[in-house]
Amino acid sequence: MPLYTVTTQSGVLNAKGKAELAQQLTSLHSGYAGVPRNWVHVIFQDYAAGSGFTAGLQAAPAALTLVIRDGRSADYKRELLKRLWSLLQAATGAADDQIVIGIQELPASQAMEMAAIMPDVNREPPSQPA
């Protein structure tokens, strides 16, 4: 269920950089949340140079949005944000004032994975196909 969308200016992350960041995000989320690696999805979106702005001025901000099932504590999410910040900053080289990260939550009953409605966070994940 975790769905990461990473948005950067074209050229900030090449194919290798995207693959490395996707692996890092997958490892972090799988280990931290205790979910199977195949539940973690990462999508990259690039925008053209001149299409990014911060404070109304042309810039190259890096953004990461994460959609997860609700039910995690505020402390859990704060720690996750800190870890995600470090990964995104290391991958992009963006300054603190050029990074934005947000977590969006939705009820497990409103998400599907592998043709099944997702379990609540407090329940065991469904068994994985062999």
Explain this structure to me?
- It is a single chain.
- The protein has 130 residues and is of the alpha/beta class.
- It has a single domain, classed as 2-Layer Sandwich (Macrophage Migration Inhibitory Factor), CATH 3.30.429.10.
- Helices cover 29% and strands 29% of the residues.
- The chain is built from two helices and eight strands.
- α1 runs antiparallel to α2 (74-92).
- The chain is globular and about 45 Å long.
Question: What's this entry about, in short?
Answer:
This protein is α/β, with parallel strands linked by helices and 130 residues long.
Strand order of the largest sheet: 2-1-5-6
CATH class: Alpha Beta
Quickly give the CATH architecture: 2-Layer Sandwich
Strand-residue proportion: 25-35%
- Provide the residue-averaged pLDDT: 92
CATH-defined superfamily? Macrophage Migration Inhibitory Factor
Helix content: 25-40%
Shape: globular
Helix and strand topology:
Blueprint: E1 3-9, H1 15-33, E2 41-47, E3 53-54, E4 57-58, E5 62-69, H2 74-92, E6 99-106, E7 112-113, E8 116-117
Parallel strand pairs: 1-2, 5-6
Antiparallel strand pairs: 1-5, 3-4, 7-8
